[in-house]
């Protein structure tokens, strides 16, 4: 009883678990007193949206800051928004950690500068990864770069059907391969990563199988069209589906990823009959230099990665297909390895008969902390970081690492954008709202960042601080959300500042597919207090 009274939102989350809800799709919860919601975002208030990554945070931010907003009705309200990183350059927000700048001399830019034509094919679910992230933060295509975005399927519930649009992605890739004016083809199959964030073993294995089948179709045409194919992934997911205690891990992993060279030759032997070899000991930053070497294009000095392929004939100019199996990690152990447990004749044949190695895709090798603060272990990879490094050909320090270093050296607490929001709330007599993911180490943020903000608000002397959390299961043990919520409620009590006033499943608030009905629900949760009431009395 004492714990319920002390941590009311944590208790409400546990009640939701018992009622069959999960973290990702949890219905909004709102703290109430005397029947009225506490801590709503109101006119004149200050908000710090502390999430990182950014692509799933744009729509909710727009709902509060855009002057012209056609998607649903809003009441007139002016709020002052600060975001931890830049979600989009056109958003009217202050940014605590602005981007250091667009990464230059990426794979796409280098291929374009060489006068070669490139085509990228991806489902809309992963569009930003193959376009903006792969291009080092640049949104516009380079000269000679075409983008084919296959609309993801409409579906009811949390996850799409396992096949998604894998066949349509393959069909588009085949058409591009048959067009000899296309020098570089880049393809992303999203299935394993997307479906891997669920707990349906059969669905995940069906997703793995679908990707394997469509990969085989594309490789068959690549061989016929004399195109060299490179098969790899951006990070791992379902090859390590269990935690050591046997509970399901729906998040990303710190595993290496496969890298396979499929040379255009009928000789189905290692080296493809062309005398090509693949070296071990590489990471994702070596993919771009490899592509350039195969195409006969000199890599720019900014690329510190090196080609993985030896024996490339002088002159190059070979057509190349870079095939990215999103979330397909490499791991020998079969326990909890849903990739190994799925029938994958195409990938099995590639690994048996073609030059293949494994690449690092987590931790310092891709600009992430090598040790997770306060927990240990290598930081897991993710789709944003993976595609950035595949395209950049060098290590790019992640926003997460920049933020955590600033907390360690104390500069975080002097950050001008964060100080402006906190001092504004203090001096204007308004409220400060801290909005973001409630997870230990989600790719979208960390409760450690939230705790740093609470400590900073105490130093500044902000009188009213409200926390609004988003729950997500990815990479967390079952029912871990309630543990983190209680941790933040306890931290507010320990510091003597802040109230944790509302929660929602990230499914409703972190959308990137123009599902404005979900964003409207999140808006009304924050501004109106719409949700299941939680009375702490």
Content of β-strand: 15-25%
| Oligomeric state as shown | single chain
Number of strands: 19
Per CATH, the architecture of the largest domain is: 3-Layer(aba) Sandwich
Mean pLDDT: 92
Taking all Cα atoms into account, the compactness measure Rg is 24 Å
Top CATH class of the largest domain: Alpha Beta
Which sheet architecture does the biggest sheet show? Answer: 9 strands, mixed
Individual helix count:
17
Distance separating the two termini: 11 Å
Helix content: 25-40%
Class based on secondary structure composition and strand pairing: alpha/beta
Find the CATH topology of the largest domain. Answer: Alkaline Phosphatase, subunit A
How would you sum up this structure, described in words?
With 537 residues, this protein is α/β, with parallel strands linked by helices. It folds into two domains: 2-98 and 401-534, 2,3-Bisphosphoglycerate-independent phosphoglycerate mutase, substrate-binding domain; 110-396, Alkaline Phosphatase, subunit A (3-Layer(aba) Sandwich). The chain has helices at residues 2-6, 8-18, 58-65, 107-113, 127-133, 166-178, 191-196, 201-224, 287-295, 345-353, 383-392, 399-409, 416-428, 447-460, 480-495, 506-509, 516-527; strands at residues 29-33, 36-37, 46-49, 80-85, 94-97, 118-123, 145-150, 184-189, 228-232, 257-262, 277-278, 282-283, 309-310, 320-325, 356-360, 432-437, 465-471, 499-505, 532-534. The strands form three sheets. Strands 1, 2, 3, 4, 5, 16, 17, 18 and 19 form a nine-stranded mixed sheet that branches. Strands 7-6-8-14-9-10-15-12 form an eight-stranded mixed sheet, with helices on both faces. Strands 11-13 form a two-stranded antiparallel ribbon. The protein starts with a helix and ends with a strand. Residues 266-273 have low confidence and may be disordered.
